[in-house]
Amino acid sequence: MMWPFYLMALVAIVSTIRVVTNANPVHALLSLIISLLAVAGMFMIVGAPFAGALEIIVYAGAIMVLFVFVVMMLNLGQDTVEQERKWLTSSAWAYPALMSFLMGLTLVWSFGSDFNHLTAPLMGQEVIGPKAVGYTLFTKYLLLVEIAAMLLLGALVAAYHLGKREPSAEEEKNNG
Fold first, then answer.
1. In a domain, 92, yes or no
2. N or C: which terminus of the chain carries fewer CB neighbours within 10 A?
3. Are residues 92 and 86 in contact, defined by beta-carbon separation less than 8 angstroms?
4. ∠61-64-68 over CA atoms, to 5°?
5. What phi and psi, each to the nearest 5 degrees, are found at residue 83?
6. Residue 101 CB neighbours (<10 A)
7. What is the pLDDT at residue 139?
8. Nearest to 31 by CA among 7, 2, 67, 83
9. By residue range, what is the domain housing residue 119?
10. How far is 49 from 42, CA to CA, in rounded Å?
11. What confidence tens digit (pLDDT) does each residue in 146-174 have?
12. Which of 13-17, 31-35, 103-107, 134-138 holds the top average pLDDT?
């Protein structure tokens, strides 16, 4: 009964290795998305669907879309036209097709059988929902949540001040 977890772990490990070893930034980001989706699947298999959903929404969704947009906006030069032609070969699609097949196989097995994630997680533990996460965060770990909030606020203020552009003398002269 543990093979879906190990299969998702294998997909995550192989995808993470491809992130580090891939020279093409777009392929590396796509491998990172596959890795994050596999980790979300592992969370769901062990009985933490809330953590899995957060993994998909926050990491695989929002942050990875931001990374892909940044890479796409970079001016990579004329070499990218020839490289895009190479992406259309069948060998370039072998890895994504294999990883998608493995994750799809795990999902079909999990949802197609009489196995129910919400009442009987695969690893034999109880399901951890949003209520339990919120209760634990704001009772037992309240101080850590407050410290994390202050660190994030400090990072936001620092990013604003570091990114703020000082007007040049000519702009000040034209505006004032």
1. yes
2. C
3. yes
4. 125
5. -70, -35
6. 11
7. 92
8. 67
9. 3-128
10. 9
11. 999 999 899 889 988 887 777 777 777 77
12. 13-17
Helix, strand or coil for residue 76? Answer: coil
**52: which 2 tokens?**
């899995």
Distance CA 62, CA 150 (A): 22
- What is the tens place of the pLDDT at every residue in 32-77? 888 998 999 888 888 888 888 888 888 878 888 888 777 777 766 6
How far is Cα 50 from Cα 47, in angstroms, rounded to an integer?
9
Is residue 62 left, alpha or beta, with left meaning phi > 0 and alpha meaning psi from -120 to 50? alpha
Residue 67 included in any domain: yes
**How far is residue 96's CA from residue 34's CA, in Å, rounded to a whole number?**
8
CB 40 within 8 A of CB 117: no
Structurally, the chain folds into a number of domains equal to 1
pTM of the predicted structure, to 2 decimals: 0.63
* Amino acid letter, 99: M
Tokens found for residue 143? 């101080």
What CATH number should be reported for the domain holding residue 20?
Answer: 1.20.120.1200
Calpha distance 161→67 (Å, rounded): 22
Quote the tokens at residue 82. 């020839």
In order of 39, 115, 118, 136, the CA distances from 45 in angstroms are: 10, 11, 10, 21
Q: Give the C-alpha separation, 47 to 2, whole Å.
A: 13
